[in-house]
């Protein structure tokens, strides 16, 4: 359906073609929207799997720290045997001089000997280095 004999474009036929294209686009958009809505509902109905994330370095460090045994502190609760030993040490009478002044408690011979051996090794090491 073309009209011959006119100069320039025919605006009426162009308007009709454009309006048909717009109707087709709107119809297509409605179909896509309905399809997407159906697919969204079907996806939501499926059970979701928990996502497994690799642990962050901080979390790894915290888990590692939990597994390491803590060192024993000096303020820890003492056992009954240690308490008895301390009580026995306290009960010992300290030696006194003629004036009545008490002398300090002397360390056991074994600890003094071990200390002497350690210091002897240290001095020998210094002598090999020609420091003394």
UniProtKB/TrEMBL annotation:
InterPro entries: JHY. Transmembrane segments: none annotated. One of its GO terms (biological process) is axoneme assembly. It comes from the Eukaryota. This is JHY protein. It comes from Bucorvus abyssinicus (Northern ground-hornbill).
